[in-house]
Amino acid sequence: MKIGLIVLGGMLAATPAWAAESKISSGDTAWLLVSTALVLMMTLPGLALFYAGMVRKKNILATCAQSLATTALVSILWVVVGYSLAFTAGGPWLGDFSRFMLKGLTMDAAHDLAKTVPESVYMMFQMTFAIITPALILGAAADRIKFSAMLWFMGAWVLLVYCPVAHWVWGGGFLGDAGVLDFAGGIVVHINAGVAALVTALILGKRIGYGTENLAPHNLTLGVVGVSLLWVGWFGFNAGSAVAADARAGMAMTVTHIAAATAALAWMAAEWFVNGKPSVLGIVSGAVAGLGTITPASGYIEPYAAILIGLAAGLACFWASTAFKRRMGYDDSLDVFGVHGVGGTIGTLAAGVFATVAVAGLNDKGQPAASGWVDGNAAQIGIQAYGIVVVVIYCAIVTAVILKAIDMLVGLRVSDEDERQGLDIALHGETLQ
Description:
By secondary structure, the protein is an all-alpha fold. The chain has helices spanning 2-21, 26-54, 60-87, 119-137, 147-169, 174-177, 186-204, 220-239, 247-275, 280-294, 303-328, 336-354, 357-360, 379-409, 416-421, 423-428, and strands at residues 110-111, 114-118. A two-stranded antiparallel ribbon has the order 1-2. The protein is globular.
Protein backbone atom coordinates (compact mmCIF):
# COMPACT_ATOMS: atom_id res chain seq x y z
CA MET A 1 0.00 0.00 0.00
CA LYS A 2 2.79 2.38 0.96
CA ILE A 3 4.70 1.56 -2.25
CA GLY A 4 1.58 2.22 -4.34
CA LEU A 5 1.09 5.61 -2.73
CA ILE A 6 4.70 6.49 -3.42
CA VAL A 7 4.41 5.51 -7.09
CA LEU A 8 1.11 7.39 -7.46
CA GLY A 9 2.60 10.47 -5.80
CA GLY A 10 5.58 10.34 -8.16
CA MET A 11 3.30 10.15 -11.20
CA LEU A 12 1.21 13.11 -10.04
CA ALA A 13 4.33 15.12 -9.28
CA ALA A 14 5.80 14.34 -12.71
CA THR A 15 2.80 15.62 -14.65
CA PRO A 16 2.91 19.30 -13.65
CA ALA A 17 6.70 19.28 -13.97
CA TRP A 18 6.42 18.16 -17.63
CA ALA A 19 3.70 20.74 -18.25
CA ALA A 20 5.84 23.49 -16.76
CA GLU A 21 8.72 22.61 -19.10
CA SER A 22 6.53 22.58 -22.18
CA LYS A 23 6.14 25.97 -23.88
CA ILE A 24 3.72 24.76 -26.53
CA SER A 25 0.63 27.01 -26.69
CA SER A 26 -2.60 25.44 -27.88
CA GLY A 27 -3.83 28.85 -29.07
CA ASP A 28 -0.70 29.61 -31.10
CA THR A 29 -0.67 26.08 -32.48
CA ALA A 30 -4.31 26.30 -33.55
CA TRP A 31 -3.72 29.63 -35.30
CA LEU A 32 -0.66 28.35 -37.15
CA LEU A 33 -2.54 25.22 -38.24
CA VAL A 34 -5.27 27.45 -39.69
CA SER A 35 -2.67 29.74 -41.28
CA THR A 36 -0.96 26.76 -42.90
CA ALA A 37 -4.22 25.68 -44.48
CA LEU A 38 -4.89 29.24 -45.66
CA VAL A 39 -1.48 29.58 -47.31
CA LEU A 40 -1.79 26.20 -49.02
CA MET A 41 -5.18 27.37 -50.30
CA MET A 42 -3.39 30.27 -51.94
CA THR A 43 -1.72 27.86 -54.36
CA LEU A 44 -4.51 25.28 -54.54
CA PRO A 45 -6.99 26.42 -55.63
CA GLY A 46 -6.23 30.18 -55.45
CA LEU A 47 -3.23 30.63 -57.74
CA ALA A 48 -4.30 27.73 -59.96
CA LEU A 49 -7.64 29.41 -60.70
CA PHE A 50 -6.14 32.90 -60.96
CA TYR A 51 -3.58 31.82 -63.54
CA ALA A 52 -6.01 29.51 -65.34
CA GLY A 53 -8.42 32.39 -65.79
CA MET A 54 -5.73 34.60 -67.30
CA VAL A 55 -4.50 32.26 -70.04
CA ARG A 56 -6.24 31.21 -73.23
CA LYS A 57 -8.78 28.40 -73.21
CA LYS A 58 -6.41 25.92 -74.84
CA ASN A 59 -3.95 26.22 -71.93
CA ILE A 60 -6.22 26.23 -68.87
CA LEU A 61 -5.72 22.58 -67.86
CA ALA A 62 -1.97 22.79 -68.42
CA THR A 63 -1.80 25.84 -66.19
CA CYS A 64 -3.74 24.05 -63.43
CA ALA A 65 -1.49 21.00 -63.84
CA GLN A 66 1.57 23.18 -63.21
CA SER A 67 0.23 24.36 -59.84
CA LEU A 68 -0.83 20.84 -58.86
CA ALA A 69 2.47 19.25 -59.81
CA THR A 70 4.51 22.02 -58.17
CA THR A 71 2.61 21.54 -54.91
CA ALA A 72 3.32 17.81 -54.90
CA LEU A 73 6.96 18.04 -55.98
CA VAL A 74 7.98 20.85 -53.63
CA SER A 75 6.21 19.16 -50.70
CA ILE A 76 8.37 16.04 -51.05
CA LEU A 77 11.57 17.98 -51.65
CA TRP A 78 10.84 20.09 -48.57
CA VAL A 79 10.42 16.98 -46.42
CA VAL A 80 13.53 15.28 -47.78
CA VAL A 81 16.01 18.14 -47.60
CA GLY A 82 14.51 21.59 -48.24
CA TYR A 83 13.37 22.35 -44.70
CA SER A 84 16.72 21.23 -43.32
CA LEU A 85 18.67 23.45 -45.71
CA ALA A 86 16.51 26.48 -44.94
CA PHE A 87 15.78 26.26 -41.21
CA THR A 88 18.53 24.41 -39.41
CA ALA A 89 21.44 26.20 -37.77
CA GLY A 90 24.12 25.35 -40.32
CA GLY A 91 26.02 28.52 -41.08
CA PRO A 92 25.48 32.01 -42.52
CA TRP A 93 24.89 30.68 -46.04
CA LEU A 94 22.94 27.46 -45.67
CA GLY A 95 21.49 25.10 -43.10
CA ASP A 96 22.79 21.61 -42.47
CA PHE A 97 21.30 18.13 -42.94
CA SER A 98 20.21 17.57 -39.35
CA ARG A 99 16.54 17.45 -40.40
CA PHE A 100 17.14 15.30 -43.50
CA MET A 101 13.91 13.37 -44.10
CA LEU A 102 12.65 15.26 -41.02
CA LYS A 103 14.86 13.16 -38.76
CA GLY A 104 14.50 14.23 -35.14
CA LEU A 105 11.15 15.96 -35.62
CA THR A 106 9.42 14.96 -32.39
CA MET A 107 5.84 15.45 -31.26
CA ASP A 108 6.31 18.17 -28.67
CA ALA A 109 9.57 19.91 -29.60
CA ALA A 110 9.46 23.49 -30.89
CA HIS A 111 11.77 25.25 -33.33
CA ASP A 112 13.97 28.07 -32.05
CA LEU A 113 12.09 30.45 -34.37
CA ALA A 114 8.66 29.23 -33.23
CA LYS A 115 8.92 28.37 -29.57
CA THR A 116 5.23 28.02 -28.78
CA VAL A 117 4.17 25.62 -31.55
CA PRO A 118 5.32 22.09 -32.43
CA GLU A 119 8.12 22.06 -34.98
CA SER A 120 6.00 19.86 -37.25
CA VAL A 121 3.47 22.69 -37.55
CA TYR A 122 6.16 25.28 -38.20
CA MET A 123 7.70 23.00 -40.83
CA MET A 124 4.36 22.66 -42.60
CA PHE A 125 3.72 26.40 -42.45
CA GLN A 126 7.07 27.11 -44.08
CA MET A 127 6.42 24.37 -46.64
CA THR A 128 3.43 26.30 -47.97
CA PHE A 129 5.67 29.32 -48.58
CA ALA A 130 8.16 27.12 -50.43
CA ILE A 131 5.29 25.84 -52.60
CA ILE A 132 3.75 29.14 -53.66
CA THR A 133 7.01 30.95 -54.42
CA PRO A 134 8.11 28.86 -57.43
CA ALA A 135 4.48 28.46 -58.47
CA LEU A 136 4.30 32.25 -58.89
CA ILE A 137 7.18 32.14 -61.39
CA LEU A 138 5.17 29.96 -63.75
CA GLY A 139 2.96 32.92 -64.64
CA ALA A 140 5.87 34.32 -66.66
CA ALA A 141 6.22 31.06 -68.62
CA ALA A 142 2.51 30.55 -69.33
CA ASP A 143 1.48 29.09 -72.71
CA ARG A 144 4.92 27.87 -73.81
CA ILE A 145 7.01 25.91 -71.28
CA LYS A 146 7.38 22.12 -71.46
CA PHE A 147 5.85 20.22 -68.55
CA SER A 148 9.03 18.16 -68.08
CA ALA A 149 11.19 21.29 -68.10
CA MET A 150 8.84 22.92 -65.63
CA LEU A 151 9.26 20.03 -63.19
CA TRP A 152 13.04 20.10 -63.41
CA PHE A 153 13.05 23.86 -62.97
CA MET A 154 10.72 23.80 -59.95
CA GLY A 155 12.84 21.22 -58.16
CA ALA A 156 16.20 22.80 -58.89
CA TRP A 157 15.03 26.35 -58.17
CA VAL A 158 13.54 25.50 -54.78
CA LEU A 159 16.73 23.80 -53.62
CA LEU A 160 19.28 26.16 -55.17
CA VAL A 161 17.52 29.53 -54.85
CA TYR A 162 14.58 29.45 -52.45
CA CYS A 163 16.16 27.42 -49.64
CA PRO A 164 19.39 29.45 -49.48
CA VAL A 165 17.55 32.80 -49.57
CA ALA A 166 15.06 31.64 -46.93
CA HIS A 167 17.99 30.65 -44.74
CA TRP A 168 19.78 33.97 -45.29
CA VAL A 169 16.74 35.98 -44.21
CA TRP A 170 14.75 33.76 -41.82
CA GLY A 171 16.85 30.74 -40.88
CA GLY A 172 19.76 32.40 -39.08
CA GLY A 173 21.71 33.46 -42.15
CA PHE A 174 23.79 36.54 -42.88
CA LEU A 175 20.98 38.82 -44.09
CA GLY A 176 18.94 38.26 -40.96
CA ASP A 177 22.06 38.85 -38.88
CA ALA A 178 22.64 42.10 -40.78
CA GLY A 179 19.21 43.30 -39.65
CA VAL A 180 17.26 42.92 -42.91
CA LEU A 181 13.52 43.02 -42.18
CA ASP A 182 11.19 40.69 -44.06
CA PHE A 183 8.19 39.78 -41.97
CA ALA A 184 6.43 37.39 -44.34
CA GLY A 185 8.28 37.19 -47.64
CA GLY A 186 8.93 40.43 -49.53
CA ILE A 187 12.47 39.30 -50.30
CA VAL A 188 12.18 35.55 -49.86
CA VAL A 189 8.94 35.17 -51.81
CA HIS A 190 8.08 38.17 -53.97
CA ILE A 191 11.42 39.62 -55.07
CA ASN A 192 12.78 36.11 -55.46
CA ALA A 193 9.84 34.98 -57.61
CA GLY A 194 9.63 38.27 -59.52
CA VAL A 195 13.29 38.30 -60.54
CA ALA A 196 13.18 34.62 -61.48
CA ALA A 197 10.05 35.31 -63.54
CA LEU A 198 11.75 38.10 -65.48
CA VAL A 199 14.80 35.93 -66.20
CA THR A 200 12.50 33.08 -67.26
CA ALA A 201 10.52 35.32 -69.62
CA LEU A 202 13.71 36.64 -71.22
CA ILE A 203 15.26 33.21 -71.73
CA LEU A 204 12.06 31.54 -72.95
CA GLY A 205 11.27 34.31 -75.40
CA LYS A 206 7.95 35.74 -76.44
CA ARG A 207 4.80 33.75 -77.10
CA ILE A 208 3.82 33.20 -80.72
CA GLY A 209 1.61 36.12 -81.68
CA TYR A 210 2.74 38.38 -78.84
CA GLY A 211 1.99 41.94 -79.86
CA THR A 212 0.10 40.91 -83.00
CA GLU A 213 -2.62 38.47 -81.86
CA ASN A 214 -5.28 38.63 -79.15
CA LEU A 215 -3.77 36.89 -76.11
CA ALA A 216 -6.38 38.18 -73.68
CA PRO A 217 -7.52 36.08 -70.69
CA HIS A 218 -10.10 33.46 -71.51
CA ASN A 219 -12.14 33.52 -68.30
CA LEU A 220 -11.77 36.42 -65.88
CA THR A 221 -14.46 34.92 -63.67
CA LEU A 222 -11.96 32.22 -62.73
CA GLY A 223 -9.42 34.97 -62.16
CA VAL A 224 -11.71 36.82 -59.76
CA VAL A 225 -12.42 33.62 -57.81
CA GLY A 226 -8.71 32.86 -57.67
CA VAL A 227 -7.78 36.32 -56.41
CA SER A 228 -10.57 36.17 -53.83
CA LEU A 229 -9.05 32.99 -52.45
CA LEU A 230 -5.59 34.57 -52.54
CA TRP A 231 -6.86 37.61 -50.65
CA VAL A 232 -8.34 35.49 -47.85
CA GLY A 233 -5.36 33.14 -47.84
CA TRP A 234 -3.00 36.08 -47.46
CA PHE A 235 -4.27 36.58 -43.92
CA GLY A 236 -2.62 33.27 -43.09
CA PHE A 237 0.45 34.29 -45.08
CA ASN A 238 1.03 37.54 -43.19
CA ALA A 239 -0.81 37.23 -39.87
CA GLY A 240 0.37 33.63 -39.57
CA SER A 241 3.97 34.82 -39.79
CA ALA A 242 3.59 36.26 -36.29
CA VAL A 243 3.68 32.55 -35.27
CA ALA A 244 1.34 33.45 -32.43
CA ALA A 245 -2.31 34.26 -31.89
CA ASP A 246 -1.57 37.72 -30.57
CA ALA A 247 -2.02 41.44 -31.19
CA ARG A 248 0.78 41.54 -33.73
CA ALA A 249 -1.00 38.94 -35.83
CA GLY A 250 -4.14 41.04 -35.61
CA MET A 251 -2.30 44.14 -36.82
CA ALA A 252 -0.66 42.19 -39.64
CA MET A 253 -4.08 41.03 -40.79
CA THR A 254 -5.46 44.57 -40.56
CA VAL A 255 -2.73 46.23 -42.61
CA THR A 256 -2.80 43.41 -45.17
CA HIS A 257 -6.46 44.05 -45.93
CA ILE A 258 -6.02 47.84 -45.98
CA ALA A 259 -3.12 47.67 -48.43
CA ALA A 260 -4.92 45.25 -50.76
CA ALA A 261 -8.03 47.44 -50.86
CA THR A 262 -6.03 50.63 -51.43
CA ALA A 263 -3.91 49.09 -54.20
CA ALA A 264 -6.98 47.71 -55.99
CA LEU A 265 -8.51 51.19 -56.02
CA ALA A 266 -5.24 52.84 -57.06
CA TRP A 267 -4.67 50.47 -60.01
CA MET A 268 -8.31 50.85 -61.02
CA ALA A 269 -8.07 54.65 -60.94
CA ALA A 270 -4.79 54.70 -62.89
CA GLU A 271 -6.16 52.40 -65.58
CA TRP A 272 -9.41 54.37 -65.75
CA PHE A 273 -7.42 57.58 -66.28
CA VAL A 274 -5.05 56.08 -68.88
CA ASN A 275 -7.43 53.81 -70.83
CA GLY A 276 -10.80 55.38 -70.16
CA LYS A 277 -12.25 52.24 -68.53
CA PRO A 278 -11.53 50.27 -65.35
CA SER A 279 -11.03 46.60 -66.18
CA VAL A 280 -11.76 43.63 -63.96
CA LEU A 281 -8.25 42.38 -64.71
CA GLY A 282 -6.86 45.67 -63.43
CA ILE A 283 -8.81 45.56 -60.17
CA VAL A 284 -7.70 42.00 -59.34
CA SER A 285 -4.12 42.77 -60.38
CA GLY A 286 -4.11 45.78 -58.09
CA ALA A 287 -5.33 43.71 -55.16
CA VAL A 288 -2.56 41.16 -55.67
CA ALA A 289 -0.02 43.98 -55.99
CA GLY A 290 -1.16 45.39 -52.66
CA LEU A 291 -1.05 42.01 -50.97
CA GLY A 292 2.46 41.28 -52.19
CA THR A 293 3.77 44.74 -51.42
CA ILE A 294 2.53 44.84 -47.83
CA THR A 295 3.94 41.39 -47.05
CA PRO A 296 7.49 42.30 -45.89
CA ALA A 297 6.27 45.16 -43.70
CA SER A 298 3.02 43.68 -42.42
CA GLY A 299 4.23 42.81 -38.92
CA TYR A 300 6.04 46.08 -38.37
CA ILE A 301 3.75 48.95 -39.41
CA GLU A 302 0.65 50.90 -38.40
CA PRO A 303 -2.53 51.22 -40.50
CA TYR A 304 -1.77 54.67 -41.95
CA ALA A 305 1.41 53.24 -43.51
CA ALA A 306 -0.62 50.45 -45.13
CA ILE A 307 -2.64 53.04 -47.07
CA LEU A 308 0.53 54.70 -48.34
CA ILE A 309 2.11 51.37 -49.25
CA GLY A 310 -1.06 50.23 -51.01
CA LEU A 311 -1.22 53.45 -52.99
CA ALA A 312 2.40 53.10 -54.08
CA ALA A 313 1.83 49.44 -54.97
CA GLY A 314 -1.21 50.09 -57.15
CA LEU A 315 0.38 52.92 -59.12
CA ALA A 316 3.91 51.52 -59.45
CA CYS A 317 2.86 47.97 -60.33
CA PHE A 318 0.37 49.28 -62.90
CA TRP A 319 3.17 51.24 -64.56
CA ALA A 320 5.59 48.30 -64.40
CA SER A 321 3.05 45.90 -65.93
CA THR A 322 2.03 48.23 -68.75
CA ALA A 323 4.26 51.12 -69.87
CA PHE A 324 7.56 49.70 -68.57
CA LYS A 325 6.83 46.22 -69.91
CA ARG A 326 5.98 47.59 -73.37
CA ARG A 327 9.09 49.77 -73.40
CA MET A 328 11.39 46.88 -72.48
CA GLY A 329 9.66 44.43 -74.83
CA TYR A 330 9.74 41.28 -72.70
CA ASP A 331 6.82 38.82 -72.50
CA ASP A 332 6.09 38.12 -68.86
CA SER A 333 2.75 36.47 -69.64
CA LEU A 334 0.95 37.17 -66.36
CA ASP A 335 3.03 40.11 -65.10
CA VAL A 336 4.80 38.30 -62.29
CA PHE A 337 7.75 40.68 -62.31
CA GLY A 338 5.60 43.80 -62.60
CA VAL A 339 3.41 42.78 -59.67
CA HIS A 340 5.58 40.66 -57.38
CA GLY A 341 9.10 41.81 -58.23
CA VAL A 342 8.29 45.51 -58.20
CA GLY A 343 5.79 45.20 -55.35
CA GLY A 344 8.16 43.15 -53.22
CA THR A 345 10.90 45.74 -53.72
CA ILE A 346 8.65 48.64 -52.74
CA GLY A 347 7.37 46.79 -49.68
CA THR A 348 10.84 45.77 -48.53
CA LEU A 349 12.05 49.36 -48.70
CA ALA A 350 8.84 50.54 -47.04
CA ALA A 351 9.60 48.30 -44.08
CA GLY A 352 12.76 50.34 -43.61
CA VAL A 353 10.70 53.51 -43.62
CA PHE A 354 7.60 52.63 -41.60
CA ALA A 355 8.69 49.86 -39.21
CA THR A 356 7.97 50.91 -35.64
CA VAL A 357 8.60 49.33 -32.29
CA ALA A 358 5.02 50.25 -31.36
CA VAL A 359 3.93 47.31 -33.53
CA ALA A 360 7.05 45.15 -33.77
CA GLY A 361 7.61 45.15 -30.01
CA LEU A 362 10.81 43.99 -28.31
CA ASN A 363 12.93 40.94 -29.00
CA ASP A 364 14.20 38.39 -26.46
CA LYS A 365 16.99 40.77 -25.48
CA GLY A 366 14.61 43.62 -24.71
CA GLN A 367 15.64 45.54 -27.84
CA PRO A 368 13.30 46.84 -30.59
CA ALA A 369 12.41 43.93 -32.85
CA ALA A 370 12.20 46.38 -35.76
CA SER A 371 12.42 50.12 -36.24
CA GLY A 372 12.67 52.25 -39.34
CA TRP A 373 12.89 55.86 -40.41
CA VAL A 374 9.67 56.81 -38.57
CA ASP A 375 11.38 55.73 -35.34
CA GLY A 376 14.49 57.74 -36.19
CA ASN A 377 16.38 54.78 -37.69
CA ALA A 378 16.89 55.93 -41.29
CA ALA A 379 19.83 53.53 -41.64
CA GLN A 380 17.31 50.67 -41.88
CA ILE A 381 16.46 51.76 -45.44
CA GLY A 382 20.07 51.11 -46.47
CA ILE A 383 20.01 47.69 -44.79
CA GLN A 384 16.84 46.83 -46.70
CA ALA A 385 18.42 47.94 -49.98
CA TYR A 386 21.44 45.76 -49.23
CA GLY A 387 19.22 42.71 -48.80
CA ILE A 388 17.39 43.46 -52.04
CA VAL A 389 20.56 43.83 -54.10
CA VAL A 390 22.11 40.63 -52.77
CA VAL A 391 19.03 38.53 -53.51
CA VAL A 392 18.38 40.08 -56.92
CA ILE A 393 21.92 39.32 -58.09
CA TYR A 394 21.99 35.80 -56.67
CA CYS A 395 18.52 34.88 -57.89
CA ALA A 396 19.07 36.24 -61.40
CA ILE A 397 22.38 34.43 -61.91
CA VAL A 398 21.36 31.06 -60.47
CA THR A 399 17.96 31.10 -62.19
CA ALA A 400 19.62 31.76 -65.54
CA VAL A 401 22.11 28.93 -65.00
CA ILE A 402 19.33 26.50 -64.05
CA LEU A 403 17.24 27.42 -67.10
CA LYS A 404 20.19 27.14 -69.50
CA ALA A 405 21.14 23.74 -68.09
CA ILE A 406 17.58 22.44 -68.44
CA ASP A 407 17.36 23.81 -71.96
CA MET A 408 20.45 21.81 -72.92
CA LEU A 409 19.15 18.64 -71.25
CA VAL A 410 15.46 18.45 -72.16
CA GLY A 411 14.61 21.74 -73.86
CA LEU A 412 12.57 24.49 -72.24
CA ARG A 413 9.99 25.38 -74.79
CA VAL A 414 7.34 23.39 -76.62
CA SER A 415 7.40 23.27 -80.40
CA ASP A 416 5.64 25.98 -82.41
CA GLU A 417 3.06 23.42 -83.47
CA ASP A 418 2.30 22.41 -79.89
CA GLU A 419 2.11 26.04 -78.79
CA ARG A 420 -0.41 26.85 -81.51
CA GLN A 421 -2.41 23.73 -80.75
CA GLY A 422 -2.44 24.45 -77.04
CA LEU A 423 -0.68 22.80 -74.13
CA ASP A 424 -3.80 21.05 -72.82
CA ILE A 425 -3.97 18.63 -75.74
CA ALA A 426 -0.29 18.71 -76.73
CA LEU A 427 1.16 17.97 -73.29
CA HIS A 428 -1.66 16.31 -71.38
CA GLY A 429 -3.95 14.83 -74.03
CA GLU A 430 -6.97 16.58 -72.56
CA THR A 431 -9.23 19.45 -73.54
CA LEU A 432 -11.61 21.70 -71.64
CA GLN A 433 -15.13 20.84 -72.75
